[in-house]
Amino acid sequence: MEKDREDLNAIKRKTVMSTLSLFFQSGYSSVLGLAANLVLTILLTPTTFGIYIATLSIISILNYFSDIGLAASLIQKKEVSREDEKTAFTIQQILVITLVVIGFTATSAIAEFYKLPKDGRFLYWALLAGFFLSSLKTMPSVLLEKEIKFEKVVLVQIIENTFFYITVIILAIMGYGLNSFTVAVILRSLVGVVLIYRFSPWKISIGIDRSSYKKLISFGLPFQGSSLLALVKDDLLTLYLGRVVGFAGLGYIGWAKKWAESPIRIIMDSISRVLFPLFSKFQTDRGRLSRLIEKIIHYQSLLIIPAIVGMALVMSRIVAVIPKYSKWEPALPLFYLFCLSALMSSYSTPFINFLNGIGRVKISFYFMVFWTALTWILTPILISQYGHIGFPITMVILSSTFIIVVLITKRVVDFGFIKSITPFIVSTAIMATVVSLSFNIPAPREVSLLIAISAGIISYISSVKFIFKIDFATEIMDILKSKKNG
User: Fold this and answer.
1) How many CA atoms lie within 13 Å of 445's alpha carbon, on the beta-carbon side?
2) Which of 243, 267, 298, 334 is the most exposed place for a label (fewest CB within 10 A)?
């Protein structure tokens, strides 16, 4: 019993450290990427920058087919043998090398389709080489993720991104144009491979064990099927929207969706990477799974609900305050709908991770089929009726099905959903009232906005702490202290 408690505490500490590391990496990469893109879009022509985006999108599609879910299969398995590792690595390399060969063979056709100049071909080849090098990182990364040691994976990503952006900026300033990306892509890939094997040594082995292959594929194919459906539901839909609503309408949709979903991207994307291996570790312990789900909903609600509601309250003021930002005012109705959609859909993510983590991957796959079909059925109908606002209406309808996900998960393991979110709904309602009243203070609009944001943050934290007696900062500090002392 004492050993189980120690193991649980160790996993808890790893989870907190991994999540904090992912938050830092996400924030650092976002700021660095934003600064680099600003510099690059000043230095490079739109055509040069567009060629990079176009060639990069080809590699993104290849990534969907690079391991048929084998990495996820290894993370999900409770015990992983050397044969499992060798089999997964070998199959992935066969797939990756096949895709790289096809990619190189198709160079002329792709260059003709995109009207790529000579430098564009070099960049395309560099991305294919980087795609192969990145595949070599999969196994060491999986071993670290399975042990919930994301801080090492994160460190590699931080160093990779730093090398990439600094190299691109320096070479672009020196006038290398598109070749700046070519050199940076190769350098990033080489640095990443060397570092990941330094942090997680793994002896490369080739071979396929039939028993391991069958077990890995039985989980991996449905899991990868969900990823493929996500490609159809999101990326291909974007191309469709550009055709039916025009690029101006797509611009409004992109702006509204990006802002509305930013809290989810920053918060939930980091948490999701930790949840899958964590659920896998406890897949046979229903009691711990129940408590874990409640904690996750608790922490998620603490951050997500006030962030999304707060953004909805102040966005119209932000658009009015920022110079040359009034052009986005027509997108505000879309933004509010996307906020509602983002809030509801955030409660699907942890439960889909839970179902994948305990091996119920077919259930999550069926959900993806349902969401993909519904997206493609409703979007054309609603767009024809309401124009570009029809798409966020579709997203609200789809997101409302999170209730079904919750109910199905409760059949597998019992947990308290309402009690986990109630404190934060009440505190957010108080915050919304305070923010709305703050806007009535007679002051310049910039000052009024700052007062409203500050008052909202203070009122929310105060409500959580003094009404519901919740102090997460203290709890996290206690966990970090125990890690230090342990």
Assistant:
1) 10
2) 243
Distances (CA, A) of 219 to 136, 146, 148, 231, 306: 21, 16, 20, 19, 37
Residue 276 CB partners (closer than 8 Å, separation 6+): 72, 75, 76, 353, 356, 357
pLDDT at 476: 46
Above 80 in pLDDT, residue 118? yes
At 471 the three-state DSSP class reads coil
Q: Cα separations (Å) of 338 from 165, 240, 260, 351, 389? A: 31, 19, 6, 21, 10
Query: Which band of pLDDT confidence, cut at 50, 70 and 90, is reported for residue 415?
Result: confident
Residues 6+ apart with CB under 8 A from 248: none
Give dist(CA 183, CA 178) in Å, integer: 9
Q: Which residue has the higher pLDDT, 252 or 72?
A: 252
Give the residue carrying structure tokens 């979903």: 261
Residues 6+ apart with CB under 8 A from 104: 125, 128
Dihedral, CA atoms, 182, 188, 190, 194, nearest 10 degrees?
Answer: 180
Calpha distance 142→85 (Å, rounded): 10
Distances (CA, A) of 5 to 10, 11, 275, 279: 9, 10, 20, 17
Please report the pLDDT score of residue 397 as a whole number. Answer: 96
Torsion over CA of 384, 338, 234 and 402, rounded to 10 degrees? -110
C-alpha dist (Å) from residue 449 to 312, 400, 446:
13, 31, 5
118, 241 Cβ separation under 8 angstroms: no
Q: Which of 17-21, 160-164, 270-274 has the highest mean pLDDT?
A: 160-164
Residue with tokens 């015990």: 79
Q: At what angle do helices 332-345 and 246-263 cross, to 10 degrees?
A: 40
Q: What is the mean pLDDT of residues 326-335?
A: 88
What are the φ/ψ torsions at residue 471 (nearest 5 degrees)? -130, 90
Taking residues 202-223, report their average pLDDT. Answer: 71
